[in-house]
Amino acid sequence: MEMKLDTAPDYAGCEGEMDDRSFFEAVNDAIAVHDIRSFQFIAINQRFTEMFGYTLEEMQKGGVGILAAGDRSFREEEVLQRLRGAVTGQSQIYEAEVCRKTGKRGWMEVSLKRGKIWGQDCLLALIRDVTDRKRAEVELRESEQKFRTLFESSHDALLMIDENGIFDCNRKALELYGLSSKEDLIGRNPGEFSPAWQPDGHHSIEWATEQIQGALKDGPRFYEWIHCRPEGTVIITEVLLNRLEIGGKKVIQALIWDIGERKRAEEKIRRYQERLRTLALDLSLVQERERRRIAIDLHDHIGQNLAFSKMKLGALRESVRCTSLLEPLEEIYALVVQTIEDTRSLVFELSPPVLYELGLEAGLEWLAERVQDEYGISVECEHDRLAKPLDEEIRIVLFQIVRELLMNVAKHAQAGKVKVTVSRERNQIRLSVEDNGIGFNPSSVGGARGEKTGFGLFSIRERMNYLGGELRIDSAARSGTRVLLRVPLNRKRKRRIKELPHEH
Predict the structure, then answer these.
(1) Looking only at Cα atoms, what is the longest distance across the chain?
(2) CA 184 to mean position of chain CA atoms
(3) Beta-bridge partner residues of 503
(4) Is CATH 3.40.50.300 the classification given to domain 21-130?
(5) Is residue 238 within 8 Å of residue 221, measured between CB atoms?
(6) What is the 3-state secondary structure (H, E, C) of 100-153?
(7) Which of 127, 222, 493, 504 has the greatest count of CB atoms below 10 A from its CB?
């Protein structure tokens, strides 16, 4: 049977004969048939022409080098070498970059093998366009390179974890763990680089495994974690576990931050806050002691002298018979009496003796009467009559706080009624101050009552914290305010902080 070069014989297989033209044209891949000796194109299918843009005559004239696009010698020689290999019976499957007639470049996968066309030996080339796949591979490599670059250059420690343990890490992770090589991490459970037990009582390896499995199943996990370097250095960290999919496989990316410096800063702030509370309470007590000292001096010295002067003036007034002197003496006598009353009031205002002699409830009742008389506000004081053995220090602080709260109500709350309640709840004293005023927003510093009020509440809160007590404020616009205090009975004061330790 004679074979015409302008026809396209069918490809029936690598070893069999091609006798079905319809199959030759029907396949989606390009097919080229080469002479076994000259390697000249003797047939191509329609798909070949569509893929490359060349006719059979153009391919016969230009040869395989026509597809080289500027790299003719190298490309052609490479193809010829593969053609020779196929002649010897070696199956050739390779990828090559080509240039179409339009100038557009692409990648082809070529399967080259010796076969027969109607009984005649030839070389058969099955060509598949893999440009999209190659582009995807390039993009994947570029993406992987970008990921690797970001992974390695990250300022955070990064671990990649699967069901077998750590399978990758970056340089920062090695620095965090104090290791020199990835091999020291690969295949190990992150919990192995921790103390046996975490501060919350969890077993490190078991808890790490549980967290990883939970993240694989349910998504991100975030928690604090204690790590330990080989030489024993403890590292406080925060860990974020994210679930990723790589190559169809779910893995965990662990981001680890060393928060030791932050924790040290927080501890420093806590110590300063503790010192602030101490100083605030000390200042309050110093003020009260100074008030007490002045009150005692007024009572014991000036008050006594005034009382003695009153007695002398009284005796003098009785003995004077001269009518012209009686009126001035009466005026002086009345002035001394008024001064005695003012001194007594000042003594009570500075430091009411009833607070020290009769206790907190009596002191608050006296305070309620004073506020009511001075500001015209109805102040009710109620207590349960149970014994409340308070340290003098706690008694003074609570009295000061209630006085500040009542002054705040009188000046800012626009209230007509206030109720002060004192009760004992087991080993605590419970004290509340409730008014029917305009209220304010407790979350805002100062709120509706001004910045001084905000600072006052801050000061009260700090004093309560120092005493181990609690402060609760319930307030809303036009709904009044309720301040609740709870303080332990007979609680030992915290040890005073004389000096903050120096940072090394």
Answers:
(1) 171
(2) 30
(3) none
(4) no
(5) no
(6) CCCCCEEEEEEEEEEEEECCEEEEEEEEEECHHHHHHHHHHHHHHHHHHHHHHH
(7) 127
Which tokens hold the place of 80? 């010829």
Residue 6 burial class via C-beta count within 10 angstroms: exposed 0-12, middle 13-18, buried 19 and up:
exposed
The whole model's pTM is what?
Answer: 0.45
Q: Letter for the amino acid at 138?
A: V
Tokens for 364? 């608050």
Distance CA 418, CA 401 (A): 15
Q: Does domain 358-504 have CATH number 3.40.50.720?
A: no
Matching CATH number, 154-258, of 3.100.10.20, 1.20.190.20, 3.30.450.20, 3.40.50.150: 3.30.450.20
Residue 393: both structure tokens together: 């220090």
Closest CA to 389 of 414, 410, 417, 361: 361
Written as one letter, the residue type at 183 is E
pLDDT score of 491: 55
Hey, is 94 helix, strand or coil? strand
CA 369 and chain centroid, separation: 51
Residue 95, both tokens: 């990828």
Element at 483 (helix H, strand E): strand 481-488
Q: CA-CA distances (angstroms) from residue 45 to 32, 107, 131, 225? A: 7, 19, 20, 66
User: Helix 260-297 to helix 451-466 angle, to the nearest 10 degrees?
Assistant: 100
Which of 371, 360, 393, 361 has its CA nearest to residue 463?
Answer: 393
Q: Which pLDDT tens digit goes with each residue over 101-143?
A: 888 888 888 888 888 776 778 888 888 989 888 888 877 777 7
| Mean pLDDT confidence for 290-319 | 77
Nearest by Cα to 432 from 485, 504, 471, 488? 485
Q: Cβ neighbours of residue 161 under 8 Å, at least 6 residues apart?
A: 167, 190, 212, 251, 252, 253, 254
